[in-house]
Every structure is written in structure tokens, then in C-alpha cells.
Amino acid sequence: MNSVKMGGIEMGRFEMSGHSVSYYIMSAILVLAGLLTWPYAASAEGASLPIKPLAQLASAASDSNAKASTSSSNPDTVRPEMAKPLQLIQELLKAGKGQDALQKLKELDVFANRNAYENYIIEHLRGSAASLSGDADTAAKSFEAVIASGRIPAAQKMNIIEAIAANFYRAKNYSKTAEWCARYFKEGGLESGMRSLWIQSMYMAGDLDGAAREMIVDIELLEKANKTPPEDRLQLLASIYQRKKDAIGYASTVEKLLSFYPKKDYWAEAIYRVSTRQGFPDRLVMDVARLKMA
Questions:
Q1: What is the DSSP letter of 229?
Q2: pLDDT for the residue 293
Q3: Could you tell me which residues come within 8 angstroms of residue 218 by beta carbon, excluding any fewer than 6 positions away?
């Protein structure tokens, strides 16, 4: 945990930790979970096949007994020559070889006149491979393309949005992280860890007003439910007010820290703030000194 100077003491500043760290690997795990049984379609000898699991692509693409159908009547198909590369890419992903999968995907990039479904499949795979290999920027952009395609199943959409936000955070693109977190909640997302990611990304992007607004909402909800707000959240809110030079908001948050977590450091901070106010009586200076030594 990093620290930030508050008056005469050092206070910890909230960072991504605990539950929120899971977002660093969630982008690979959740999406790959969907890919393991992802339905693809391949065409054989100019004929489309019904949608099949990826594991059946290679055999389906060479099945001479496949029923004829035009690609225009079933646009959700991939050409047969893509079947084997797609099969190998999935095997690489299952083995955790993200970098190798990214290299194999380059073989598909050279195909001209790819249809919308082929692009969708390729970007879905690229996003997962990039997540595994640590290329957060590529992963985020590929998953953005997946969402933009309008083809993602509703059941997977929220997981993909989570993956986009997580990868943009890993790439230190905090404004894009905040943008996708906001979209997540606008579309009905409920994952509490995403709120931590949202608030942290707004803070890191310099959107202090937004971070404070959402932090206050969370804290007030906890207080109304007679629950104790997490100490690190209150610390972060205090840090935000300090950066905003909002003395009233800062003092109010320190009071909450004192109320919920009556530690010596918070008492020292409260005493320091009171004793440095304009017009503080000189006759009380010695009393303050004794309190600091207590």
C-alpha cells in the first residue's frame, strides 16, 4: 500500500488489492471459459455447415457429405481453410500459450475479404491470447471489437466488459478503464469489485470529482445498513479531498476514520487540523502538545 502525507502523519492510500486483484487474471479465465465450448461454423467445399463446437471444425471442414448452403443464408460461418488454424489456436490457449496463439493468429490476418463473423471470432481469440501473454492493450482493443460487433451472446457480454476494463487498467489507460466500468453499471452490472476498479481508475485518471461521488455513495449505503466502511476506502476519500483542497470534506472524512477506526494516527491528524486553524487560542497550545504526547 502506498502512502500519502496528511498533515503531520503518513496515511495509507487505497490501491488495487485483495478482491480487485482478480481482475488481472479474470480477463483470461472468464473469456477462455467461454471459448472452450465456443460455437463456430465452418464451410466445407463451398458449403456451409451448421454451427459446431470448435473441436469439430477440422473434421467438419473436410466433411464431403455436408449439406449445401450458401454463406449468404448463414453468414455465421468461417471458410474451411481457417478451421485448422482456429483449432490449433484454441489448443494453444488451453495450454496457456498466449504468445504462441498470437503468432498463429497472424496466419488468419492475411485472409482477404473476411466476413464479419470471421473478424468477430479472430478478435475474440486475439483478446484471450493477448490477456494470457500480458499484452493488456491488445487484449482490451480486441475485446472492444468483440463488443462492437454486436455478436457477443448476452450471457457473456458482462464478462467481456469486465475483461476490457481490467486490461485497460493493466495498460494504465485509466480513463478508458473508467469509461468501461461506467458502461458495465449502466448495463446492469452488479459486481462489487468493479466498483473498486471504477473508483480507483477515476482517481488515477484525475477525475477526483467522479471518484469522490461514487465513493460517497458506497460509504453512505454501508452506513445506512449499519455496516462499517472499509478503512482503505475512507483513506482514499480523504486523499481525494486533500488533492481537491477540500478542507471541509477532508475533515469530515478524518472524523469518520476516527469514529470507525480510533487509531493514534487519526487522533494526531485530527488534533493537528484543529490546532492549525486560524484563530486557534494560544492558551491551548500547551494542551495540544500534551495531547500529542499522550
A1: P
A2: 56
A3: 195, 199, 229, 233
User: pTM here?
Assistant: 0.67
As a whole number of angstroms, the distance between CA 54 and CA 46 comes to: 19
DSSP character at residue 77: -
Provide block-wise average pLDDT over 10 residues at a time, the chain (294 residues). Answer: 43 40 41 41 31 40 39 68 92 93 94 92 93 91 93 89 92 95 93 91 96 95 95 93 92 91 81 57 52 56
Which of 175, 76, 162 is CA-nearest to residue 117? 76
Provide the 8-state DSSP code for 9: E
Residue 255 in any domain: the answer is yes
Residues 241 and 103 in one domain: no
134 and 244 share one domain: no
Residue 100: which residues within 8 A CB-CB, separation 6 or more?
Answer: 92
Asked if 106 and 89 touch (Cβ cutoff 8 Å), the reply is no
Domain of residue 245 covers: 221-294
